[in-house]
Every structure is written in structure tokens, then in C-alpha cells.
Amino acid sequence: MSDGGVFVDYYAVLRVDPKCSARKLETAYHLLAKLYHPDHGEHSDVAKLTEVIDAYKALRNPDDRQEYDARYASETGFDFAEDDDQTTDDGAPLSDAEAHARILQFLYKRRRENALEPGVGRYYIQEILNCPDDLFDFHLWYLKEKGLIGLTEEGTLAITIEGVDHVIATSRTAMKEKLMLSQAANEQDQRHG
Questions:
Q1: Residue 158 β-bridge partners
Q2: 66, 68, 132, 148: which could join 163 in a potential S-S bond, CB 3.0 to 4.6 Å?
Q3: Is the pLDDT of residue 84 over 80?
Q4: In the chain, which segments carry CATH 1.10.287.110?
Q5: How far apart are CA 159 and CA 148, in angstroms?
Q6: Coiled-coil annotation: which residues (predicted)?
Q7: Positive or negative CA dihedral for 109, 110, 111, 113?
Q8: Chain-wide mean pLDDT for the chain?
Q9: What CATH class has 10-90?
Q10: pLDDT at 83
Q11: CATH number, domain 92-169, options 3.40.1190.20, 1.10.390.10, 3.40.50.2300, 1.10.10.10
Q12: In the predicted model, is pLDDT for residue 3 greater than 60?
């Protein structure tokens, strides 16, 4: 983080709203790091990749981000206290995606550990997510319509074959992203070290 030196707008570097959630910040970082990584011929840009990594390092820790936000507000005049309904809804798709992933991961684990009785009661899963009935109903509707979960003969929820395939594919993609980001960070450290 800049320590009284030249002010850098890290939110602009990451192309996010200053009030964005930590999850959205992380998602923006992953997308931009992947875009500017040297392995991506036409968009590779080591200088921009370095900026993106520096910005994320400065904002990923909540305490550091709070300190940066104070400086950001004084430099730009941005009002973090102002209530903005658009910002509140901005993270809804990401938080929904996280809830869907948590449900699928839980049901995947349950099916692996108890293949003959993979079902789980809806209220148990809702308690884990800690979300209201109408939002939980939305999550169940979506996952059922996508064919990722279904009902057992006992009326409990269980992951489907499509759901298992989805969890495996998502896990593979996440592992590739982590490897790519680790390589980018190592390359940056070697250049600066």
C-alpha cells in the first residue's frame, strides 16, 4: 500500500466500485490477473499485471483496506457512508453463486460419504446457509431447474450426476486459476527480487 507517497487508485486498477464486497474484489483480481498474464499472448502486459497484483495486495486485508479507504476518501472526495441501493444489489449474483457452490459442495460431500443415503433435509441446508426462506427457495429452484440437485424418494435433497460433474469441473477450473496466479506471483517476485 502507498504510505504517504503518490496516491494510486487501486479501485480503478481493479475496475471495481470502492464499496464492492471482498468477493467481488477477489473476482476482479482473478479476471484481470488472468487477462494480463504473460501466457495470454494478445492481452499479456506485465506492467498491468504488476499493478493488479499490487492493488489486490493493498486491498485484500480488511484492516489495510479500511486504512486505504480513509486515504481514498480524502484524495477523491468519495463518500463511503452514503447509502447506495445499487451497490447493495451489485453483489447479489456473486453471493448467490457462492450459496449455490456451498449447497453443491455440501451435497457432493454427503453423496461421497453416504452414497446409499445421500439425501439431506432442506431445513438443515438452509440452517448452514443462514438465509431467509424466500432466498433459499430461489436457490433450490435454480439448482433444481439446472438439474444439479433433485429430491430423493424420501423427499430430501441430493446432488445429481450433473451436479457432481459441475462440482468436479468447477474444482478443476479453480485449481488451474490458483496455479496460474501462483506462477504470475512467482514471476513477479523473480523480476523484483
A1: 150
A2: 148
A3: no
A4: 10-90
A5: 6
A6: none
A7: positive
A8: 85
A9: mainly alpha
A10: 53
A11: 1.10.10.10
A12: no
